[in-house]
Specification:
The chain is an alpha/beta fold. The protein folds into two domains: 3-89, Glucose Oxidase, domain 1 (3-Layer(bba) Sandwich); 96-331, TIM Barrel (Alpha-Beta Barrel), CATH 3.20.20. It is 25% helix and 18% strand. Helix 7 (253-263) packs parallel to helix 10. Bound molecules: iron/sulfur cluster (2 copies). The site of one iron/sulfur cluster has 15 residues, from loops.
Protein backbone atom coordinates (compact mmCIF):
# COMPACT_ATOMS: atom_id res chain seq x y z
CA UNK A 1 0.00 0.00 0.00
CA UNK A 2 1.35 3.43 -0.96
CA UNK A 3 1.58 5.90 1.91
CA UNK A 4 2.60 9.55 2.07
CA UNK A 5 3.42 11.51 5.20
CA UNK A 6 2.39 15.10 5.77
CA UNK A 7 1.03 17.37 8.48
CA UNK A 8 -2.61 17.26 9.54
CA UNK A 9 -5.16 19.87 10.50
CA UNK A 10 -8.75 19.85 11.87
CA UNK A 11 -8.75 16.11 12.56
CA UNK A 12 -11.03 13.72 14.43
CA UNK A 13 -11.59 10.24 13.00
CA UNK A 14 -9.94 8.69 9.95
CA UNK A 15 -11.41 10.14 6.74
CA UNK A 16 -12.00 7.92 3.72
CA UNK A 17 -12.92 9.19 0.28
CA UNK A 18 -12.39 9.19 -3.47
CA UNK A 19 -9.79 11.55 -4.92
CA UNK A 20 -11.02 14.41 -7.06
CA UNK A 21 -8.68 17.00 -8.49
CA UNK A 22 -11.49 19.36 -9.48
CA UNK A 23 -11.93 22.12 -6.86
CA UNK A 24 -15.07 23.42 -8.58
CA UNK A 25 -16.90 20.15 -9.04
CA UNK A 26 -20.42 19.92 -7.63
CA UNK A 27 -19.95 16.15 -7.15
CA UNK A 28 -18.34 16.42 -3.71
CA UNK A 29 -20.17 13.74 -1.71
CA UNK A 30 -17.74 10.96 -0.73
CA UNK A 31 -14.80 12.85 -2.28
CA UNK A 32 -11.50 14.17 -0.96
CA UNK A 33 -10.12 17.14 -2.84
CA UNK A 34 -6.48 16.83 -3.91
CA UNK A 35 -5.33 20.27 -4.94
CA UNK A 36 -2.31 22.54 -4.66
CA UNK A 37 -4.38 25.19 -2.93
CA UNK A 38 -7.26 25.04 -0.52
CA UNK A 39 -10.18 26.58 -2.47
CA UNK A 40 -12.35 29.36 -1.10
CA UNK A 41 -15.43 27.15 -0.87
CA UNK A 42 -14.40 23.58 -0.02
CA UNK A 43 -17.71 22.73 1.67
CA UNK A 44 -19.02 19.25 0.80
CA UNK A 45 -15.65 17.49 0.42
CA UNK A 46 -14.77 14.93 3.09
CA UNK A 47 -11.26 16.34 3.38
CA UNK A 48 -8.42 18.02 1.52
CA UNK A 49 -4.88 17.04 0.57
CA UNK A 50 -2.88 20.12 -0.43
CA UNK A 51 0.57 21.67 -0.58
CA UNK A 52 -0.34 25.15 0.62
CA UNK A 53 0.43 26.41 4.11
CA UNK A 54 -2.66 28.54 4.46
CA UNK A 55 -5.31 26.16 5.73
CA UNK A 56 -7.92 27.90 7.78
CA UNK A 57 -10.92 25.96 6.60
CA UNK A 58 -12.76 23.64 8.94
CA UNK A 59 -12.27 20.45 6.90
CA UNK A 60 -9.80 17.67 7.80
CA UNK A 61 -6.72 18.51 5.76
CA UNK A 62 -3.22 17.12 5.19
CA UNK A 63 -0.39 19.14 3.72
CA UNK A 64 2.02 16.98 1.70
CA UNK A 65 5.06 17.45 -0.53
CA UNK A 66 4.29 18.45 -4.17
CA UNK A 67 5.77 15.17 -5.46
CA UNK A 68 3.48 13.14 -3.21
CA UNK A 69 0.46 15.18 -4.27
CA UNK A 70 1.19 14.26 -7.90
CA UNK A 71 1.07 10.54 -7.02
CA UNK A 72 -2.64 10.71 -6.09
CA UNK A 73 -4.87 10.07 -9.10
CA UNK A 74 -8.48 10.92 -9.84
CA UNK A 75 -10.68 8.02 -8.68
CA UNK A 76 -8.20 6.59 -6.13
CA UNK A 77 -9.68 5.77 -2.73
CA UNK A 78 -7.53 7.25 0.04
CA UNK A 79 -7.61 7.57 3.80
CA UNK A 80 -6.47 10.62 5.75
CA UNK A 81 -5.20 9.98 9.26
CA UNK A 82 -4.68 12.25 12.23
CA UNK A 83 -0.95 11.46 12.24
CA UNK A 84 -0.64 13.06 8.80
CA UNK A 85 -0.58 9.84 6.74
CA UNK A 86 -2.32 9.66 3.38
CA UNK A 87 -2.79 5.97 2.45
CA UNK A 88 -3.90 4.81 -0.99
CA UNK A 89 -6.44 2.04 -0.38
CA UNK A 90 -7.60 1.63 -3.99
CA UNK A 91 -5.59 2.65 -7.05
CA UNK A 92 -7.98 3.56 -9.80
CA UNK A 93 -5.46 2.84 -12.55
CA UNK A 94 -4.09 -0.40 -11.09
CA UNK A 95 -5.11 -3.69 -12.77
CA UNK A 96 -5.45 -5.22 -9.29
CA UNK A 97 -6.52 -3.93 -5.88
CA UNK A 98 -6.64 -5.82 -2.59
CA UNK A 99 -9.03 -5.86 0.35
CA UNK A 100 -7.59 -6.80 3.72
CA UNK A 101 -10.54 -8.14 5.75
CA UNK A 102 -8.54 -9.46 8.68
CA UNK A 103 -5.00 -10.01 9.89
CA UNK A 104 -5.95 -13.00 11.99
CA UNK A 105 -4.99 -16.46 10.72
CA UNK A 106 -5.06 -20.11 11.78
CA UNK A 107 -1.53 -20.66 10.46
CA UNK A 108 1.82 -19.22 11.57
CA UNK A 109 3.89 -19.51 8.39
CA UNK A 110 7.63 -19.10 8.89
CA UNK A 111 7.72 -16.78 5.86
CA UNK A 112 4.46 -14.86 6.51
CA UNK A 113 4.98 -11.29 5.28
CA UNK A 114 1.98 -10.07 7.31
CA UNK A 115 2.26 -11.70 10.74
CA UNK A 116 -1.12 -12.69 12.19
CA UNK A 117 -2.79 -10.37 14.68
CA UNK A 118 -6.01 -10.41 16.68
CA UNK A 119 -8.91 -9.58 14.37
CA UNK A 120 -9.79 -5.91 14.17
CA UNK A 121 -13.41 -5.50 13.06
CA UNK A 122 -12.71 -2.06 11.60
CA UNK A 123 -10.86 -3.75 8.70
CA UNK A 124 -14.14 -5.28 7.50
CA UNK A 125 -15.98 -1.96 7.91
CA UNK A 126 -13.24 -0.10 6.01
CA UNK A 127 -13.31 -2.69 3.21
CA UNK A 128 -17.09 -2.33 2.91
CA UNK A 129 -16.77 1.45 2.78
CA UNK A 130 -14.09 1.28 0.07
CA UNK A 131 -16.19 -1.12 -1.99
CA UNK A 132 -19.16 1.21 -1.62
CA UNK A 133 -17.12 4.20 -2.87
CA UNK A 134 -15.12 2.76 -5.78
CA UNK A 135 -16.22 1.81 -9.29
CA UNK A 136 -14.18 -1.20 -10.45
CA UNK A 137 -14.03 -1.85 -14.18
CA UNK A 138 -14.94 -5.28 -15.55
CA UNK A 139 -11.26 -6.13 -16.02
CA UNK A 140 -9.89 -4.81 -12.73
CA UNK A 141 -9.00 -7.71 -10.43
CA UNK A 142 -10.24 -7.60 -6.85
CA UNK A 143 -8.03 -9.56 -4.48
CA UNK A 144 -9.20 -10.64 -1.01
CA UNK A 145 -6.11 -11.03 1.10
CA UNK A 146 -5.24 -11.49 4.74
CA UNK A 147 -4.76 -12.97 7.25
CA UNK A 148 -7.25 -15.71 6.58
CA UNK A 149 -10.50 -14.02 5.59
CA UNK A 150 -12.51 -17.28 5.57
CA UNK A 151 -12.25 -17.34 9.40
CA UNK A 152 -14.65 -14.39 9.53
CA UNK A 153 -17.56 -16.63 8.49
CA UNK A 154 -20.65 -14.34 8.18
CA UNK A 155 -18.58 -11.18 7.63
CA UNK A 156 -16.64 -13.04 4.92
CA UNK A 157 -19.79 -14.34 3.23
CA UNK A 158 -21.45 -10.90 3.47
CA UNK A 159 -18.43 -9.29 1.80
CA UNK A 160 -18.58 -11.82 -1.05
CA UNK A 161 -22.28 -11.03 -1.50
CA UNK A 162 -21.48 -7.33 -1.57
CA UNK A 163 -18.87 -7.86 -4.30
CA UNK A 164 -21.31 -9.92 -6.36
CA UNK A 165 -23.91 -7.13 -6.07
CA UNK A 166 -21.56 -4.25 -6.74
CA UNK A 167 -19.32 -5.71 -9.46
CA UNK A 168 -20.70 -9.01 -10.74
CA UNK A 169 -18.33 -9.10 -13.71
CA UNK A 170 -15.06 -8.34 -11.88
CA UNK A 171 -12.44 -11.09 -11.66
CA UNK A 172 -11.91 -11.93 -7.97
CA UNK A 173 -8.94 -13.67 -6.34
CA UNK A 174 -9.25 -15.13 -2.86
CA UNK A 175 -5.91 -15.83 -1.12
CA UNK A 176 -6.36 -18.58 1.45
CA UNK A 177 -4.55 -21.39 3.23
CA UNK A 178 -7.52 -23.54 2.19
CA UNK A 179 -8.13 -25.07 5.62
CA UNK A 180 -11.67 -23.70 6.05
CA UNK A 181 -12.73 -25.54 2.88
CA UNK A 182 -12.02 -28.89 4.55
CA UNK A 183 -15.41 -28.32 6.21
CA UNK A 184 -17.88 -29.44 3.54
CA UNK A 185 -20.75 -27.32 4.92
CA UNK A 186 -18.51 -24.24 4.87
CA UNK A 187 -17.60 -24.93 1.23
CA UNK A 188 -21.27 -25.38 0.37
CA UNK A 189 -22.16 -22.03 1.92
CA UNK A 190 -19.24 -20.39 0.11
CA UNK A 191 -20.45 -21.74 -3.23
CA UNK A 192 -23.92 -20.33 -2.59
CA UNK A 193 -22.76 -16.73 -2.10
CA UNK A 194 -19.45 -16.36 -3.95
CA UNK A 195 -19.10 -14.06 -6.96
CA UNK A 196 -19.19 -16.00 -10.24
CA UNK A 197 -15.74 -15.08 -11.47
CA UNK A 198 -13.73 -16.08 -8.39
CA UNK A 199 -10.39 -17.90 -8.34
CA UNK A 200 -9.46 -19.58 -5.04
CA UNK A 201 -5.67 -19.33 -4.58
CA UNK A 202 -4.62 -22.00 -2.06
CA UNK A 203 -1.14 -22.15 -0.48
CA UNK A 204 0.44 -25.59 -0.43
CA UNK A 205 4.15 -25.73 0.34
CA UNK A 206 5.10 -29.40 0.28
CA UNK A 207 4.16 -32.90 -0.79
CA UNK A 208 5.12 -34.14 2.71
CA UNK A 209 2.65 -33.43 5.52
CA UNK A 210 5.34 -32.83 8.17
CA UNK A 211 7.25 -30.37 5.96
CA UNK A 212 4.12 -28.40 5.04
CA UNK A 213 3.01 -28.30 8.69
CA UNK A 214 6.46 -27.14 9.79
CA UNK A 215 6.41 -24.33 7.21
CA UNK A 216 2.90 -23.16 8.18
CA UNK A 217 3.56 -23.66 11.90
CA UNK A 218 0.42 -25.66 12.76
CA UNK A 219 0.13 -29.45 12.87
CA UNK A 220 -2.67 -30.99 10.83
CA UNK A 221 -2.71 -28.13 8.31
CA UNK A 222 -1.54 -30.26 5.36
CA UNK A 223 -4.45 -32.66 5.72
CA UNK A 224 -7.00 -29.82 6.01
CA UNK A 225 -5.60 -27.93 3.00
CA UNK A 226 -5.61 -31.10 0.87
CA UNK A 227 -9.21 -31.82 1.96
CA UNK A 228 -10.12 -28.21 1.19
CA UNK A 229 -8.75 -28.54 -2.32
CA UNK A 230 -10.75 -31.73 -2.88
CA UNK A 231 -13.97 -30.10 -1.62
CA UNK A 232 -13.44 -27.14 -3.96
CA UNK A 233 -12.97 -29.63 -6.80
CA UNK A 234 -16.28 -31.31 -5.95
CA UNK A 235 -17.97 -28.00 -6.70
CA UNK A 236 -15.82 -27.50 -9.81
CA UNK A 237 -14.33 -24.25 -8.57
CA UNK A 238 -11.53 -22.29 -10.25
CA UNK A 239 -8.48 -23.14 -8.15
CA UNK A 240 -4.84 -22.07 -8.14
CA UNK A 241 -2.15 -23.71 -5.98
CA UNK A 242 0.62 -21.43 -4.71
CA UNK A 243 3.94 -22.86 -3.56
CA UNK A 244 6.15 -20.36 -1.72
CA UNK A 245 9.76 -21.52 -2.08
CA UNK A 246 12.01 -21.52 0.98
CA UNK A 247 15.04 -23.44 2.28
CA UNK A 248 12.59 -26.03 3.69
CA UNK A 249 11.03 -27.11 0.39
CA UNK A 250 13.46 -25.96 -2.32
CA UNK A 251 15.02 -29.43 -2.74
CA UNK A 252 11.61 -31.02 -3.40
CA UNK A 253 10.06 -28.75 -6.02
CA UNK A 254 9.94 -31.48 -8.66
CA UNK A 255 8.33 -33.90 -6.16
CA UNK A 256 5.83 -31.21 -5.17
CA UNK A 257 4.98 -30.72 -8.85
CA UNK A 258 4.43 -34.47 -9.29
CA UNK A 259 2.27 -34.54 -6.16
CA UNK A 260 0.15 -31.68 -7.50
CA UNK A 261 -0.47 -33.18 -10.94
CA UNK A 262 -1.39 -36.58 -9.44
CA UNK A 263 -3.65 -35.36 -6.63
CA UNK A 264 -5.04 -32.07 -7.87
CA UNK A 265 -5.27 -32.41 -11.67
CA UNK A 266 -8.39 -30.22 -11.60
CA UNK A 267 -6.54 -27.00 -10.76
CA UNK A 268 -6.48 -24.14 -13.25
CA UNK A 269 -3.05 -22.80 -12.40
CA UNK A 270 0.00 -23.51 -10.28
CA UNK A 271 2.33 -20.72 -9.13
CA UNK A 272 5.84 -21.10 -7.71
CA UNK A 273 6.67 -17.98 -5.75
CA UNK A 274 9.78 -16.30 -4.39
CA UNK A 275 9.66 -14.99 -0.82
CA UNK A 276 9.05 -11.44 0.31
CA UNK A 277 11.52 -10.90 3.15
CA UNK A 278 9.42 -8.93 5.58
CA UNK A 279 7.37 -9.81 8.67
CA UNK A 280 8.06 -13.35 9.92
CA UNK A 281 10.24 -14.03 6.86
CA UNK A 282 12.73 -11.48 8.16
CA UNK A 283 12.56 -12.84 11.71
CA UNK A 284 13.17 -16.40 10.45
CA UNK A 285 15.58 -15.36 7.71
CA UNK A 286 18.45 -17.73 8.56
CA UNK A 287 16.10 -20.74 8.79
CA UNK A 288 14.19 -20.14 5.56
CA UNK A 289 16.28 -18.08 3.12
CA UNK A 290 17.76 -19.78 0.11
CA UNK A 291 19.12 -17.98 -2.91
CA UNK A 292 16.86 -18.70 -5.93
CA UNK A 293 19.92 -19.56 -8.03
CA UNK A 294 20.52 -22.48 -5.64
CA UNK A 295 17.21 -24.09 -6.65
CA UNK A 296 17.13 -23.11 -10.32
CA UNK A 297 17.40 -26.73 -11.48
CA UNK A 298 14.62 -27.93 -9.17
CA UNK A 299 12.44 -25.00 -10.22
CA UNK A 300 12.99 -25.73 -13.89
CA UNK A 301 12.11 -29.43 -13.38
CA UNK A 302 8.99 -28.47 -11.38
CA UNK A 303 7.57 -26.09 -14.02
CA UNK A 304 8.47 -28.58 -16.77
CA UNK A 305 6.57 -31.35 -14.92
CA UNK A 306 3.44 -29.24 -14.47
CA UNK A 307 3.56 -27.84 -17.98
CA UNK A 308 3.95 -31.32 -19.53
CA UNK A 309 0.80 -32.38 -17.70
CA UNK A 310 -0.99 -29.59 -19.64
CA UNK A 311 -1.67 -27.52 -16.51
CA UNK A 312 -0.85 -23.82 -16.50
CA UNK A 313 2.18 -22.93 -14.40
CA UNK A 314 3.98 -19.68 -13.56
CA UNK A 315 6.94 -18.37 -11.59
CA UNK A 316 6.39 -15.18 -9.60
CA UNK A 317 8.69 -12.85 -7.66
CA UNK A 318 12.00 -14.33 -8.85
CA UNK A 319 14.28 -12.14 -11.02
CA UNK A 320 15.22 -13.58 -14.42
CA UNK A 321 18.94 -13.47 -13.62
CA UNK A 322 18.29 -16.07 -10.88
CA UNK A 323 16.22 -18.41 -13.08
CA UNK A 324 17.45 -20.77 -15.81
CA UNK A 325 16.81 -19.21 -19.21
CA UNK A 326 14.91 -22.39 -20.19
CA UNK A 327 12.36 -21.51 -17.46
CA UNK A 328 11.99 -17.82 -18.43
CA UNK A 329 8.83 -18.58 -20.43
CA UNK A 330 7.09 -19.33 -17.14
CA UNK A 331 8.29 -16.22 -15.26
CA UNK A 332 5.69 -13.49 -14.89
CA UNK A 333 5.79 -9.86 -13.89
CA UNK A 334 3.52 -8.95 -11.00
CA UNK A 335 0.37 -6.98 -11.77
CA UNK A 336 0.83 -5.09 -8.49
CA UNK A 337 2.91 -2.10 -9.57
CA UNK A 338 4.72 -1.79 -6.21
CA UNK A 339 6.21 -5.26 -6.71
CA UNK A 340 7.96 -4.36 -9.98
CA UNK A 341 10.89 -2.40 -8.58
CA UNK A 342 14.54 -2.68 -9.58
CA UNK A 343 18.03 -2.24 -8.12
CA UNK A 344 20.34 0.46 -9.55
CA UNK A 345 22.44 -2.28 -11.25
CA UNK A 346 19.35 -3.37 -13.19
CA UNK A 347 19.57 -0.26 -15.39
CA UNK A 348 22.08 -1.95 -17.69
CA UNK A 349 20.15 -5.23 -17.91
CA UNK A 350 18.86 -6.26 -21.33
CA UNK A 351 15.84 -8.13 -19.92
CA UNK A 352 14.67 -5.52 -17.42
CA UNK A 353 11.41 -5.00 -19.29
CA UNK A 354 10.51 -8.67 -18.97
CA UNK A 355 11.84 -9.09 -15.40
CA UNK A 356 9.69 -8.89 -12.24
CA UNK A 357 12.51 -7.13 -10.37
CA UNK A 358 12.66 -7.19 -6.57
CA UNK A 359 10.39 -6.64 -3.58
CA UNK A 360 11.23 -3.22 -2.13
CA UNK A 361 9.64 -4.44 1.10
CA UNK A 362 12.52 -6.94 1.40
CA UNK A 363 14.87 -3.98 1.96
CA UNK A 364 18.52 -5.05 2.00
CA UNK A 365 17.52 -8.74 2.03
CA UNK A 366 18.13 -9.33 -1.68
CA UNK A 367 20.06 -12.06 -3.45
CA UNK A 368 23.73 -11.12 -3.79
CA UNK A 369 23.69 -12.92 -7.16
CA UNK A 370 21.44 -10.41 -8.91
CA UNK A 371 23.47 -9.43 -11.95
CA UNK A 372 22.52 -7.62 -15.17
CA UNK A 373 22.15 -9.79 -18.25
CA UNK A 374 24.09 -7.88 -20.83
CA UNK A 375 22.99 -9.85 -23.86
CA UNK A 376 20.57 -12.74 -24.34
CA UNK A 377 22.44 -13.92 -27.46
CA UNK A 378 25.09 -15.71 -25.41
CA UNK A 379 22.29 -17.54 -23.57
CA UNK A 380 20.83 -18.78 -26.82
CA UNK A 381 17.76 -16.54 -26.46
CA UNK A 382 16.90 -13.73 -28.89
S1 LIG B 1 1.27 -16.54 5.06
FE1 LIG B 1 0.53 -18.16 6.43
S2 LIG B 1 0.32 -17.17 8.44
FE2 LIG B 1 0.48 -15.54 6.91
S3 LIG B 1 -1.63 -15.04 6.41
FE3 LIG B 1 -0.95 -16.56 4.90
S4 LIG B 1 -1.56 -18.54 5.74
FE4 LIG B 1 -1.66 -17.05 7.42
S1 LIG C 1 19.64 -7.61 -13.20
FE1 LIG C 1 17.74 -6.73 -12.46
S2 LIG C 1 16.43 -6.49 -14.25
FE2 LIG C 1 18.11 -7.89 -14.81
S3 LIG C 1 17.27 -9.91 -14.48
FE3 LIG C 1 18.36 -9.33 -12.61
S4 LIG C 1 16.82 -8.36 -11.30
FE4 LIG C 1 15.97 -8.47 -13.38
Amino acid sequence: MKKYKGTSNNFGDVVLGIVTRQPWTIKRKGHILVSEDVPLFPVGFRGIVHTNVSDNKKLPAIKVQPNDLRMLSEGDCISLNQNGTVAVLWENRSPMNAFLLTESCDCRCLMCPQPPKVHNKSLVETSREILHLVNPTATQIICITGGESTLLNDDFFDFLTLIQEKCPKSPIMLLTNGKSFSDFSFTKKFIAVKPKNLLVCVSLHSDIDEVHDKIVGVNGSFYKTAMGLQNLARFRQLVEIRVVISKLNADRLESIANFIIRNFPFINHCAFMGMEITGYARKNYTDIWIDPSDYEEQLFKAVRTISRSKLKVSIYNIPLCLIRPTAWNFARKSISGWKNEYLPICSSCSVKKECCGIFTTSGAFQSVRIKPIISTTSLGIN
